[in-house]
Amino acid sequence: MRETFRKFKTYLRVTGADSISRRYFVMNSFDGAMTMLGVIVGAWASGSVNPKVIIGIGLGASLAMGISGFSGAYMAERAERKRRLNKLKRAMLTDLGNTMHGKASRFALVWTALVDAISPFMAAIISMLPFFFASANLIPANTAAVVSVILIMSMIFSLGMFLGRISKENMLLSGARTLAAGILTAVITALVARI
Fold first, then answer.
1. Which residues are CB-neighbours of 75 under 8 A, at least 6 positions away?
2. How many domains does the chain have?
3. Is the Cα torsion angle 182, 186, 189, 192 positive or negative in sign?
4. What radius of gyration, in Å, describes the C-alpha atoms of the chain?
5. How much is the pLDDT for 95?
6. Phi and psi angles of residue 97, each rounded to the nearest 5 degrees, phi first
7. In a 10 Å sphere around its CB, with 0-12 CB exposed, 13-18 middle and 19+ buried, how is residue 98 labelled?
8. Is the CB of residue 124 less than 8 Å from the CB of residue 35?
9. Mind spelling out the 3-state secondary structure of the chain?
10. Would the CA dihedral through 113, 115, 119, 125 be positive or negative?
């Protein structure tokens, strides 16, 4: 198991998929969180916070983002990886399909597509957790909305801090920037939903 993990880590490093995966994770987690923020704030501002409806919309949107993310990333990464492998193949005048480069390329392709698919889905599911409690009548729907928005803003801030860590910038400032985007989204969504 440890050897397999080490091999996969090497594949990610060799192909550069480790940094690509980080970008996909952040971008798509952000998309999942912001989408749910729009759904929840829009429902609250229009006066119809129905937990079952929000769960249905959230699951539908997160599944669509996940499937779109997987297929889009898979096709885009496949084209890029195939191009790079063919370029290397021409330079080395040999088939690279069963070499470490070929195996690493195939692994990176599936890995990045999975990261692209799972990250928005997980962010959306975390955002919806309070509504599962509300649909079971354990908490009021408006409480679920407030707790969900707090969860989303926490995720958005954490993603910003993660970006700050990667870029070796001030993590709190980076988190504050992404949080500002979340707050702006919530305000605009609330205003539009009341029209």
1. none
2. 1
3. negative
4. 20
5. 55
6. -55, -45
7. exposed
8. yes
9. CHHHHHHHHHHHHHHCHHHHHHHHHHHHHHHHHHHHHHHHHHHHHCCCCCHHHHHHHHHHHHHHHHHHHHHHHHHHHHHHHHHHHHHHHHHHCCCCCCCHHHHHHHHHHHHHHHHHHHHHHHHHHHHHHHHHHHHCCCCCHHHHHHHHHHHHHHHHHHHHHHHHHHHCCCHHHHHHHHHHHHHHHHHHHHHHHCC
10. positive
pLDDT along the chain (195 residues), means of 10: 77 76 88 94 91 94 90 82 69 59 76 89 95 96 96 96 92 96 95 86
CB half-sphere exposure, 104, CA atoms < 13 A: 18
Q: What residue numbers bound the domain in which 78 lies?
A: 2-193
Which residue, 194, 195, 161, 173, is CA-closest to 41? Answer: 194
